[in-house]
């Protein structure tokens, strides 16, 4: 997501390991393009079923909620659920070979 979706905004990619070993990709847009400060209040945007964090950044800049919030001073965090393209990892299981990877609810 970082290189092809951030459209000039400062983006960071973070990895979060859940208690049951799933490695989730979380993205951060710390501030808007006109500011270099990341002192804004944090906000978490979480996508819905069968989607990913890119849902918040795919429209035009003035129509993408993540960019709109960053431009008005928020520290924007974009979550991803387990199993999507940014959270397809586990400390023990391989999603391509281990059925146990997909045994979550």
Keywords, separated by commas or semicolons:
2 helices; Rossmann fold; 105 residues; alpha+beta
Beta-strand residue fraction: 25-35%
Bulk shape: elongated
Number of domains: 1
Q: Give the fraction of residues assigned to helices.
A: 10-25%
Number of helices: 2
**Assigned CATH class:** Alpha Beta
Domain Partial AB-hydrolase lipase: 8-59
InterPro entries: AB_hydrolase_fold, AB_hydrolase_lipase
Organism: Rotaria sordida
Protein name: Partial AB-hydrolase lipase domain-containing protein
Overview of this protein structure:
By secondary structure, the chain is α+β, with helices and mostly antiparallel strands. The protein has one domain: Alpha/Beta hydrolase fold, catalytic domain (Rossmann fold). It is 10% helix and 26% strand. Strands 1, 2, 3, 4 and 5 form a five-stranded mixed sheet that branches. The longest helix has 7 residues, at 65-71. The model has no long low-confidence stretch (mean pLDDT 92).
Give the arrangement of secondary structure elements.
Layout: H1 2-5, E1 11-17, E2 22-29, E3 42-46, H2 65-71, E4 75-79, E5 89-90
Q: What's the short version?
A:
With 105 residues, this protein is an alpha+beta fold.
